[in-house]
Amino acid sequence: AQTVTQSQPEMSVQEAETVTLSCTYDTSESDYYLFWYKQPPSRQMILVIRQEAYKQQNATENRFSVNFQKAAKSFSLKISDSQLGDAAMYFCAYRGGYGGATNKLIFGTGTLLAVQP
Amino acid sequence: DARVTQTPRHKVTEMGQEVTMRCQPILGHNTVFWYRQTMMQGLELLAYFRNRAPLDDSGMPKDRFSAEMPDATLATLKIQPSEPRDSAVYFCASGLTEYNEQFFGPGTRLTVL
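C-alpha cells for the assembled complex are given below, as produced in the milestone run.
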C-alpha cells in the first residue's frame, strides 16, 4: 500500500526567508502524481503545486518549488520569500496515475508552518 | 467562479441523531470524493463516485454511513446513528475525472455530543 510521511510536525520561518518542508512516500507504482496542499485556518484545502512522476523537471509555482527525487521517493516543498499569508498546515499527498490502483489522494500527517514577522 | 459548495458548514448534534451533509460539485466534474479529517487519523478517503456511481467506499463504516449521488449536482453523506467518534471535518472534492486535480469544498465541521 502507498504511504506518505511528513516527519516535521511543525516548522517556523522568518518572514522573507526560505523554508523547506519534507515529504517521503512509498509506492510500487511507476506512474503517479504528488501534490502539496495548503490548509489555512479557514480549513479550505488549496492546491499549491503538483508533480507528475514521469517528469524529471521539478515543478515551480511562483515562490513555491519542489525537489522531487524519484529514486529516493522524496518530495520536498521549498517556499521562498516567506510571507505571513503562508502560515498554514501543509499536506503532502500522493495519487496513482492513469490506470493505477490508487485514484484517491493519500495524505501525509501535515506540517504546521508558522511565519514570524 | 466555479467552486465546490458544502452544507452545512457547521453541525452540532446529539449522539444517535441522523446527520446529512450535502455537496454540490463543480458543474461538469464527473468525480466526487468524500474525505474525513480528524486529529488522530488525519485526512482519509471515505468514498468516491464516478458519473454518480460509487467506485470505492472501503474507507466508510458501512453500518452507519451511506453516500449517494441522487443527481450530478448533488452528493450526500449520511450518518445514522451518529456517534461522538464521528466528530470531524468532512470534505467533499470534485474533479473533471479522477485523474485530474481535485477541488475541495470548505468542509462541514461535525460535532456529535
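The CA atoms of residues 95 and 102 of chain B lie 5 Å apart. The mean pLDDT of chain B is 93. Further analysis is deferred to the final report.
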